[in-house]
Design a protein that fits this description.
four-stranded parallel beta sheet; 11 helices; 8 strands; 48% helix
Amino acid sequence: MTGVNPKAVLLLNLGTPSTPSPEAVRHYLAEFLSDPRVVELPAWLWQLFLKAVLLPLRSKRTARLYQSIWMEEGSPLAVYSKRLAEKLQQSLGDSFKVVLAMRYGQPSMAMTLKNLLQADNIQSLTVLPLYPQYSAATTASCFDEVAKTLKQQRFIPSLQFISSYFDHPLYIAALAESIRQYWRKHGNDATVLFSFHGLPQRSVELGDPYAQQCHATVNLLAKQLNLSPEQYHIVFQSRFGKAQWLQPYCDVVLQQLPAQGVKKVVIVCPGFAVDCLETLEEISQRYQQLFLKAGGESFHYIPALNAATAHSELLASIVKNT
């Protein structure tokens, strides 16, 4: 890379086990669930439960879920994130250096950032977490790790941290077009469910803007697609534990809809930049079975934006205009 002011983009995603084995899954979950941003409980209490109960119980089961979606190239989240990073590099050109890292697992976010700053004389850094809607459990955790790593550096580059892009016009346009493409092939008579990853209700009460941003995204999409209130629902998936999470719950709604006369649904997950366990297994496999068993007749999941050109152009626009 040449130039007097080298610029870099650190593209971040959540992470994934390195293999779909119980051992790799256990290692990944231990790191992920030990983040105090993710689980806001006293560490002494949570760590005891995590190591003695949760990890032994969940590692084998979660490994089987990963095995059901694992690609020849590896974990879908890692594969699609890598393709997106390569596409973003093409969209930005030689004036930027794009690197991909994971908040948990590999490639390590801390090590990737250290290597980037030490090897490439980076003067300007844009940190872009692949979370359209801000949450302390995801976006803020990335900021924490960036700050922790930069504290150890002698030289700190100019820093731009993208906290969200839930209402970016190109983001809304790309999502809307993915839905229109489905409609052109299959018609638009199915009820649309916009499913987002869940969040404890307590987080919202403490000031997390996540739920508000999820609703704002869907409001913009509904307006662009001319959807009436009767044609769509906002739901939340992937809840954990017994505490109250954001509602309505996706699995519950799917089981209720057939009795209300809704036999055809199409699901979009606007909060996931690339497809992963939560979209490919939870939505496409488990929730599809729930809906059909409850009396539904047609279920379709519209894939995440993944490495679509519209997606890389959206991210490039964010980087260039920040």
